[in-house]
Amino acid sequence: MNIKKLLYIIVGCVSVALGAVGAVLPFIPSVPFLLLAAFCFARSSERLNTWFVGTKLYRDNLADYTAGRGMTKKTKIRIMSAITLLMSIGLILMGLKGIVIGCVVLSCVWVFHLIYFVFIVKTIPSS
Predict the structure, then answer these.
(1) pLDDT at 102 over 70
(2) I need a labelling partner for 49 at 20 to 30 A (CA). Which of 60, 64, 83, 96 fits?
(3) Closest to 53 measured CA to CA, from 108, 16, 91, 90
(4) Per-residue pLDDT for 61 more than 80?
């Protein structure tokens, strides 16, 4: 096994763990970590990729999105809430330190995030 595949496997496993924690704790976003895991496993190991795609974690959070169908309203709200909470903490901390440019950049990223999930990602009915 080459070093690149090994790194993909390690990053994929760490991402699955963080995604699983994020699925339970509302202040940690799960979907970005699960997307990263899917990316890493697809490039590292067919066996790990097949396992990951078969997990309930993947089916509940990513299956519809990666198939191009969209996300349920509940999933979109969970993602937007977690990201908004985390970005708010960063915004407050940078604001307290007087880092104006950082606040502007983070605010722009947050607005793009909302636009993306509200207007670009299709909302599908809950199954």
Answers:
(1) yes
(2) 83
(3) 16
(4) no
What's the CA dihedral at 20, 76, 82, 32 to 10 degrees? 50
Concatenated DSSP letters of the chain: --HHHHHHHHHHHHHHHHHHHHHHSTTS-SHHHHHHHHHHHHHH-HHHHHHHHTSHHHHHHTHHHHTTS-EEHHHHHHHHHHHHHHHHHHHHHHHHHT-HHHHHHHHHHHHHHHHIIIIISPEE---
Distances (CA, A) of 119 to 76, 106, 112: 11, 20, 10
* CA 8, 16, 46, 71 torsion-angle sign: negative
Residue located via tokens 């699960």: 34
Considering the entire predicted model, what is its pTM?
A: 0.64
Between CA 36 and CA 16 the distance in angstroms is 8
